[in-house]
Structure formats: structure tokens, C-alpha cells
Amino acid sequence: MRRSFAGPLTGALALMAMAVAAPGAAGGTTTPDGVVIGGQPVEISQSPWVVALSSRDRFGGTRAGQFCGGVLVAPAKVLTAAHCVSSDVLGVPLGQVRDLAVIAGRGTLKGTGGQEVAVSGVQLNPAYDAKSNAGDFALLTLSSPLSAGHAIKAAGAGHTAYKAGTGAVVYGWGDTKGDGTYADELRAALVKVLPDSACERAYPGYNKATYRADTMLCAGDESGGHDACQGDSGGPLVADGRLIGLVSWGSGCGQAANPGVYARLSAAPETWVARN
Ligand code: ARG
């Protein structure tokens, strides 16, 4: 039931494409059944705040143990999705994972560039609700700091970047097709902030899949084809150079009727992220 996408990007998204310096993006087409979904490879040096969460013990060494994304928000602090450190994802309780680490500055998981830094502490958002995924934030403390210049600020509540229609970029090493094809290289896809009504319609509230506009943000592509997918969770959604969301959940990947749901950064614990 996958849909292919090869249409031209809109003007605003084409500009965003150039802003992420994606090879081939200026031409405005994507690989059919594209790649994140509907994205393209990007240089990690252009987005040094994107990090991979890794545990080789849990996920094997082929892709350096990558299982989620994260965002550097201070030299020794990485923001990720709370569900990424759940036993559902890890297969065992967090306390049993001895080699939880962050990989920074490495776009190609099989490569050796950048740094691997151990995670020395994990805080869950006290307001996180595992049932509904509301408030899907966790803060990781790194055992040694990374470059302060590589951290990104979040958009404060009320910032225009949260408005429907804003072009945004989502980054990750996750599934590129929705069939378990995981990326080795960091990819980015261009999406749009969608009105809350689009996700309220798609996820009207049976059990887990309830969209809550106070802690969640709706983003995607009205015609489908551009989205985050499995393995991208915890990674950043960026607009106007500011962090506005973390990949959280969705039904399928890249479907027009089922947009991506992100943890809304303005709902992250006050002291966790610098805002402007
Ligand atoms: N829960 C997924 C993860 O753990 C992210 C799913 C995002 N899905 C989407 N269609 N945007 O990686």
C-alpha cells in the first residue's frame, strides 16, 4: 500500500531543500518511494546537533547499534524521545543496557568519524505518558561534553515556526521505505507543519493513537511521501533554524492521511532546553 512520490517541491520547500544543502534537492524530485521517507542524504557537518542513539549490545554492530535519533541541546545534554529508552524499544529495562551511547559528528554509521560518547544519566519527562505518548521527551547526560557550538536552540512557545504551513526538516537514520530498509547515512526530508486538525482527524483517539495538540505537533506532507519512519524516533524536526519537534509516532510512514506526530518542543520541561 505504498505510494510513490516524484512531484515537484513547492517553492518554500525547495528553499528549505537548499538550506539543508541536499544534493539533488534543488531539482525538486525525490526517489520514487523515497528515502527518513522522501528524503535525501545530508552532511552531518551541516546539522551537527543530530546524533544517533546506540547500543551494540541490544541492536548489533552492523549499523553501529543505532536505534533512535537524538538532538544535542547543550554540550553534555541530548534530548530524545522518552519511548526510545523504554523496555518496549530496548527489549530489556534501561538499567540493563550497559553500553548506551550517543554518536555525534558521524553521518555514515559504518564510518569511523565523529565521536561516541557514553550516556551517564537518563531523565524521563515527569509528564510523559507511555500510554498516549504525550510528553515524549527524555534528557540524556553525556559522560563528556561535545562542542557547545554544535547544540541547537528550541523555538519558544508562540514562535512562528510552530505555525501550520511552516516548512520543516526532519532528520534520521531510520527506515527509508517503511519495510525495514534502514539507512546507513543520515537523511533529511522536507515536511510542513500541519494544522492540529489534520492529526486530530487522523488519530481521533482510540487507545494509544490520540493526538494531543498541547504536547504534540503534526507535520508531514498533504500528498504523502515525506515523513519520518521507524528508527527516526527521538530525532529532530527543525524550522527556521530552531528545534520544534522530536520524531514520536505515526501510523505507517509517508501516508497522506496519516501525518507524522512529533513531541512539541514548547512542551518540553522548562529547564531542559534553551529557547529563543
Ligand atoms: N515510533 C517510531 C520510532 O520509534 C517513529 C515513527 C514515526 N512515524 C511516522 N510516520 N512519522 O522510530
Question: Could you characterize what this model shows?
Answer:
This protein has 276 residues and is mainly β. It has a domain at 48-150: Beta Barrel (Thrombin, subunit H). It contains 4 helices and 15 strands. It has helices at 11-19, 56-59, 87-90, 196-202; strands spanning 40-41, 50-54, 66-74, 77-80, 101-104, 115-124, 138-142, 167-172, 187-193, 204-206, 209-210, 216-220, 236-239, 242-249, 260-264. The protein has a 6-stranded antiparallel beta barrel with strand order 8-9-12-15-14-13. Strands 2-3-4-7-6-5 form a 6-stranded antiparallel barrel. The N and C termini lie far apart (41 Å).
Concise synopsis of the structure shown:
By secondary structure, the protein is mainly β. The protein has 4 helices and 15 strands. Arginine binds near residues 229, 231, 233, 250 and 253.
Figure out the total of helices: 4
N-to-C series of helices and strands: HEEHEEHEEEEEHEEEEEE
What binds here, in terms of ligands, is:
arginine
Parts with pLDDT < 50 across at least 5 consecutive residues: 1-35
Q: What number is the mean pLDDT?
A: 88
State the fourth-level CATH superfamily of the domain at 48-150: Trypsin-like serine proteases
Query: Pairing-aware structural class of the strands and helices?
Result: mainly beta
- What radius of gyration results from the CA coordinates? 17 Å
Descriptive key words:
single chain; 276 residues; mainly beta; Thrombin, subunit H; six-stranded antiparallel barrel; binds arginine
